[in-house]
Structure formats: C-alpha cells, structure tokens
Amino acid sequence: MIRIVIVHPSLLVCSLYSSVLDQRPNMEVVGRATTVKEALMRVQESDCNLILVSANLEDNGALALTRKIAQEHPELKVLVVGMPESKYVILQYVMAGASGYVLQDVSVDQLLQNIRAAEEDKALVSPTMAAALIDHVAELAHISARPYIQPEAYSELTARELEVLQLIDEGLTNQEISNELVIEVGTVKNHVHNILRKLDVASREDAAAHLPYIQLDEDE
C-alpha cells in the first residue's frame, strides 16, 4: 500500500489530489499539509511512505523539505510535483534527495505512473533529463580533480556575480550576457574576472560547475 502525505500551499488542491488518489487501488492519502512545518508534523504522526510535495511552496520550501526528509527519514520517498522543465532546477531536487519529479501540466495517468515508480525506486525521467544527469555525474568526476572551493568563497559573490555565473552555466557568451542583463560587455568581463578570482578557478567552466553547490549552500 502506498500511504501518501500531500503537501501543497492550497488546501483545496490537497483535497483534489486526495479525491483522485484515494480512488486508486493500493493508494491511500494519510495526511495533508500546506506548509513545511505542518508537513513534518504529518510525517511524524502518520505511517506514510511517500510524500507528494508541490514545487510551489513559499520560500523554496519544497527544496528545504525534500532535503530534510532525505536527512531525517531516508526510508521515505519524496515526489516533487509541478516542476518547471529546467535541468538546473530538477538537478537541485535530485541532489537534495528527491525520488522523482512530475512536470507542470501532466495528466492524472502520468502522475499515478510517477507515484508508483517512486515507490518502487524507479526513476521516470525524460531523455533530456537523463542526459543531464549523466553529464552531471561526469562533471562530478571532473570536480573531484579540481581544487576545493572553500564554502566562504561562495558568500563573497555578489548578487550580480551570481546572475552572471548562472548565465555562464547556461552557455551564454559575454556579449549575450551583456544583452540579457543590459550592461556593458566590459562590465561583464569584470564580473567574470571577479568570479574566477573569488572562487580561485581557472576557467568559466570550472566556476559554473560549482553553481549547484553554491545555490544549495545559500538555501541551508
């Protein structure tokens, strides 16, 4: 039996999910929550084995909840629903411990399929996401051979430098970053220089490879 706790900022949506899932064989909704704090309470008081978490919780709450569940209740599965089709965002959740994800605007059948897959320790990912995960594993191997970046170096990056680093990670050139942020190319070059200096890395690629860890460190 898949015993589910639903976490969504709207109680109405929680009820709608419940009405759908409770009608399915081998599925039972054993709790509902609209906040991270309430979700943790429901986990403690129920015998759930899967948490259905909305990616739309306030203040990046879904990521924080995913990480906390993975740390304190590793036996529980976390399925994140309503995800944007962004490799970077999805990778953050995978790294935080999510067992699976459901993109925005999926059908009920797809949702049920993903719930069953998560409960059975099977990952349902698109070919694009599978390729991204493989690339990420390969990148981790490269990172292990690079100089270690002290966590305090991350905090030295300004908000603008983080924006530039995000765009570097997306493959944009200095000119494209200039157009995107509406700043001079020379200013972009200065930001890139400062990023490399603060992180003590030799290339744009090395800096961008650490971006997921910088973002996760900020959320903690």
Task: Note down, in words, how this protein is organized.
The protein is of the alpha/beta class and 220 residues long. It is 57% helix and 13% strand. The chain has a 5-stranded parallel β-sheet with strand order 2-1-3-4-5, sandwiched between helices. Strand 1 (2-7), helix 1 (11-21) and strand 2 form a beta-alpha-beta unit. It is elongated and about 60 Å long. It starts with a strand and ends with a helix. Mean pLDDT is 83; it is low at 216-220.
| SS summary, helix count | 12
Question: What's the name of the CATH homologous superfamily of the largest domain?
Answer: Response regulator
The largest pleated sheet is described as:
5 strands, parallel
Compute the separation of the termini in Å. 33 Å
Quick overview of this protein structure:
The protein is α/β, with parallel strands linked by helices and 220 residues long. The protein has twelve helices and five strands. Helix 1 links the parallel strand 1 and strand 2.
Which keywords apply here?
220 residues, alpha/beta, Rossmann fold, Arc Repressor Mutant, subunit A, 2 domains, 12 helices, 13% strand, elongated, disordered C terminus
Question: How are the secondary structure elements laid out?
Answer:
Layout: E1 2-7, H1 11-21, E2 27-33, H2 36-45, E3 50-54, H3 61-72, E4 77-83, H4 87-96, E5 100-103, H5 108-119, H6 127-143, H7 151-155, H8 159-169, H9 174-181, H10 185-199, H11 204-209, H12 211-219
Parallel strand pairs: 1-2, 1-3, 3-4, 4-5
